[in-house]
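Why does residue order matter? Because the sequence determines the fold. Keep that principle in mind as you read this record.
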Amino acid sequence: MSDQKTTHFGYKQVPVDEKAARVRAVFDSVASRYDLMNDLMSLGIHRLWKRHAIELSGVRRGQRVLDLASGTGDLAYRFSGIVGPDGLVVMTDINAAMLGEGRERMLDRGRVGNLHYSLVNAEKIPFASDLFDCVTIGFGLRNVTDKQSAIDEMFRVLKPGGRALILEFSHPVSKSLSKVYDLYSFSVLPTLGRLVVNDPESYRYLAESIRMHPDQETLRSMMEVAGFERCDYFNHTGGIVAIHRGYKL
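Structure:
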C-alpha cells in the first residue's frame, strides 16, 4: 500500500505535491477573464467585500503591505493609493499568468513606483520576518495546501503591531441560505464557466473548494494557533464570505 500523503482538491483526494500544480492549471485557464467572472458570479458585490477589507486593514501612508494571492490586484491597487510614494505594496501570486494579468492591469491604470511583484507560495513566503505592517490574502487561502503553514508565515513576516486580513468564501449562517447557495454554486457557476471561459470544471472546483474550506470559527482558531491576538471576523452576504482579522502584538 502507498503511504503517500494526500490532500483535497475540491472533493477529490490528490497527492500533496500535485495540488499546487492543479490549482495553477485552474487559474491558467481562467486568468484572462477572471475579472469578468468575478463580476458575473457575485453580481458585483465582491467590490463591497473588498472595500470593507481595506477599511478593516487600517493601512496608512508610508506603510508596507504584502498582498498574497493578489490575482488581478483589486486589493493591491487600493493599497497602493493609500500608502503613497513613501510606502510599498508587494503584489504576489503563485500563478504567473494571474500575476502577469495583475501587473498589466496596474500599468494600464497608472499604478507604478510603489508596487513590486513576486511569485510567492503563501506556505513559504520569501521575505524577512517582522517586515510588513499588513498582510492580506483575498480569496486565495482555500487554494493553499497547508493553510496553517500559510497563516503561520503571515504572522512571521508581520511587524509587531501589524495585522493580517483573510478575505475568503465561508459558510452561510442559515440552513435556508445554504440550500440556495448550494443550488447556485453547483448549477449556475459551472454554467457561467462554460459560457464565458469554456471551462465548467474550474468553476465546479471553485464550488467544491469553498465547501472544503474551514468555517468561520475554525479559521479564527487557526489564526490564534499561529500567534495572532484579538482575532475576529465579519460575515458578509449571510456568511457566504467572511473577513478574518488578527494582530501580531
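The chain is about 45% helix and 25% strand.
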